[in-house]
Amino acid sequence: MLFSSITFLFYFLPIVLILYFLVPKKLKNAVLLIASLFFYAWGEPKYIVLISIEIVCGYIAGLLVEKFREKKVSKLILFISSMIFIGCLVYFKYADFFISNFNAITGLSMGLLKLALPVGISFYTFQILSYVIDVYRGDAKAQKNPINLALYVSLFPQLIAGPIVRYSDIAEQLSNRTHTLEKTYQGIRVFVIGLGKKVLIANSLGELCNAYNGRIESSVLFCWMFAIAYGLQIYFDFSGYSDMAIGLGKIFGFEFCKNFDYPYISGSITEFWRRWHMSLGTWFRDYVYIPLGGNRCSKPRWFFNIFVVWLLTGFWHGAAWNFIIWGLFFGVFLVIEKLLLLKKLEKMKVLNHIYVIILVAISFVIFANDNFKDALTCLSGMFFMGGLPFVSHEQLYYLLSFAVILVVAVIGATPLPKKIVSKIENKKVGNLIISIAEPVFLVIVTIVSTAYLVDGSFNPFLYFRF
Amino acid sequence: MKEKTRSIIVVSVMAILFFVVSAVCIFKKADDYSDSERRVLAKMPEISFQSILNGKFMSDFESYAMDQVPMRDNIRGIKSFNELFIFNKRDNNKLYLSDGFISKTEYPLNNDMLDKATEKFKFLYEQNLKDKDVDIYLTIVPDKNCYISEEELRLSVDYNEIKEKMIKDNEYMSYIDISDLIDIDDFYKTDTHWKQENIVDIAEKICSEMGTELHSEYEVAELPDDFYGVYYGQLALSVTPDRIKYLTNEEIENCVVTSYATGMPKETTVYNFDKAKSKDPYEFFLSGADPLVIIENPNARNDKELVIFRDSFTSSLAPLMINGYSKITLVDIRYVQSGMVGNLVEFKDNQDILFIYSTTILNNSTAFR
For an interface test with B, which of A9, A184, A185, A217 has the most B Cβ atoms less than 10 Å from its Cβ? Predict the structure, then answer.
């Protein structure tokens, strides 16, 4: 089930909210767990078995790791349980990638498994891993209550698209959290803004990207429009979904970590990745990069660590070479920045932003095309190497048609709107205006987003495949 | 305003919005049909173990939930308004709104579709016409959007490109160009079709090119109700509706029309007043686009016959051509197998044969059977 669907907004969510707030405190987690499993089963009924097995494995592993703490057997249990979780992920997500590459290298023709990807497997696998590792490290106590652990893994607001919530960050909230009017208000606000970002902006930009993919003729302008629109689409799509998750979490009393912090205002690729999909970045930092030795080692080893992390980051996003190349692309520029550029970039005011925007645009062209030839066609077109005209009638039409949404998206990807609202709010009259305008704005965004959903417009969720 | 007051206002307003809409969604009696979209709405799916396991129940429920949202047409209108006037997009779901005219993008030009249409015409020719002493003509009705696109930046197929390709690929036909007789005002504002009262010159030109002069005087009459064309419901915005006017005279009123909508002959009239009250009032003309319609003119000046392979545009055009013929046979190969046409229509020497199709149908010729 998608948050941006009529079924979720006007059937599932209101019913769950009523049940959740009606039942006594001790039953709230049970209600949320049942709702979460229902939410998951709605999209993938058969894979409810898989997630349940992984939850049971995680629960037992956590208890055993804690029981045998400081003994070798706890390391063995950590290893075995991690292999189970990673094994499931590899089997369901990467098996066909490995088989097809094996076939290509050996000339054999092993049959592909053609398994449907269990929704959210990349996210919940990392969450269970974080639980067992946190218990092993002593950063968290093993969860004795199976309902609480099952809820941590399957909690519907962040189940299918994150943020990847680390167990140690949320352990306390699973058994003891507060519900306040202010928190609910903040949750509603973040949720509705996320809904608008996803439905009104990301989906509209998606139509432009689709127009590029179905183009009759190309041009330099169209290649750039695609690169920029896709970069913005994926930002509004994913950050909108994260906002909805964070907002829903607040309504149910949870505090999830921030996942995006205006990445497009970054002055370097290093900064970009501190602001983009932050929960994934910190996960890899804490569970892969630092255990490998981080930067407290020789330079060659340090670079090796960076490339391992970025190879995995790319591969996490999808079982295809373009994702691996996309990850390594960032790895290369992160190393270059650390060696040469970072200090120079920090001193710049405009060029550093242009540098980031161009590199990120290039990266998302690679990300968007699992056929590398298509990516090269677009990239060569962008840089006047494809022999394309600068513009044609069709692209001019799309540029004019999407001009407003592109401007809204560009401004919306910066902190400018937030700063303006804060500035107005600081004055007494401004505060009153914002207080009146805010509920009106939220109602309008909800209704207009609903209208787009009812009209059955383009509504995919890009991160569903991860 | 204090944070707490603001919280109370926002939470209350949003709770009312979500819970009221939710209650209406859950308890509202499901609608069967959408008049504006001219389609059956999704019903509550039947629940079974199998349908849950394979996910069919869930996907069907998603369709049901979208179709049965309260005030669906108004809500769709909000989307159209936002797309066209807030986001300033050129089109909404490929529909343009310009000076009260709604038109739909027909883009890009699909050469494969034109080839398929040509193949189909060739098949009909080989099967039924090759050995007959008949004159065969081709006319293409430009899409409404072709005329708007000349004034504004729009995506539209190039009429001339279609025309040139069809002329080149159908050499056994003589082409009759009617594009210079049409302008945007000849179309209904809310519908894809042309207005009958504006196409007398087109009927005259086509007949003249086929060697038949028309000598008709008409009375202009008007149907009493507003006409909300097919695009009106699709766009879901409040646009001034049209009125259907029709041209009549004693000769037309005396014509005998036999329709084979169900395979069995049914006698009807050129103008069907029952259909004027149907979901698609344009079916007032010749009762709509049936697979086979025969118009017989008892007051004909000659014994000439015309066979027209056509789409719905011809429903309003054919009555204006009957003055030149004793019999007009209209065949719509979207509703009848091309291979069956020879069994249904009597092809004879000296008949005029006219293939007349709109650019939209030619560019989507998978509709041909």
Answer: A185
Question: Do both A38 and A133 map to the same domain?
Answer: yes
| B282 neighbors B302 (Cβ within 8 angstroms) | no
* Residue B42 sits at the chain A interface (C-beta within 8 Å): no
pLDDT tens for chain A, 466 residues: list them: 889 999 999 999 999 999 999 999 999 999 999 999 999 999 878 899 999 999 999 999 999 999 998 888 999 999 999 999 999 999 999 999 999 999 999 988 889 888 888 888 989 999 999 999 999 999 999 999 999 999 999 999 988 776 898 898 889 999 989 999 999 999 999 999 999 999 999 999 999 999 998 888 889 999 999 999 999 999 999 999 999 999 999 999 999 999 999 999 999 999 999 999 999 999 999 999 999 998 888 888 999 999 999 999 999 998 899 999 999 999 999 999 998 888 888 888 899 999 999 999 999 999 998 888 888 999 999 998 878 889 888 888 899 999 999 999 999 999 999 999 999 988 888 888 998 999 999 999 999 999 999 987 544 555 554 5
Residues with Cβ < 8 Å from B49, sequence gap 6 or more? none
Structural domain containing residue A249: 183-267+348-465
Q: Which of B2, B3, B6 to substitute to test the interface with A, most A CBs within 10 Å? A: B6
Residue B14 has its nearest CB partner, among A1, A442, A450, at A442
Alpha-carbon gap, residue A461 to A120, rounded angstroms: 12
Catalytic residue among A179, A277, A317, A393: A317
Residues A255 and A361 in one domain: yes
Half-sphere exposure of A285 (CA within 13 A, CB side): 11
Q: What is the helix (H) or strand (E) element at residue A133, kind and residue range?
A: helix A121-137
Domain boundary among A177, A200, A216: A177
Interface touch A439/B13, C-beta < 8 Å = yes
Q: Do A182 and B153 touch (CB under 8 A)?
A: no
Q: Cβ–Cβ of A405/B89 closer than 8 Å?
A: yes
Domain ranges (residues) in chain B: 3-71, 101-367
B138, B172 Cβ separation under 8 angstroms: no
Report yes or no on A389 lying in a domain: yes
Q: How many helices (H) and strands (E) does chain B have?
A: 13, 14
Domain assignment of residue A117, yes or no: yes
Same domain membership, residue A199 and residue A146: no
On whether residue A192 sits in a domain, the answer given is yes
Amino acid identity of residue A428, one-letter, is: K
Q: Are residues A113 and A190 in the same domain?
A: no
Task: Give domain status of residue A416, yes or no.
Answer: yes
Q: Of chain A residues 223-252, which have a CB less than 8 A from chain B?
A: none
User: A35 and A91: one domain?
Assistant: yes
My answer on whether A166 and A210 are in the same domain is: no
For residue B157, give every residue at least 6 positions away whose Cβ sits within 8 Å of its Cβ, in sequence order, or none.
B106, B107, B108, B109, B143, B146, B359, B363
Is B55 in the A-facing interface, judged by CB distances under 8 Å? yes
* A376 and A429 inside one domain: yes
Judged by a CB distance cut-off of 8 A, whether residue B27 touches chain A is no
- From A151, A177, A203, the end of a domain falls on A177
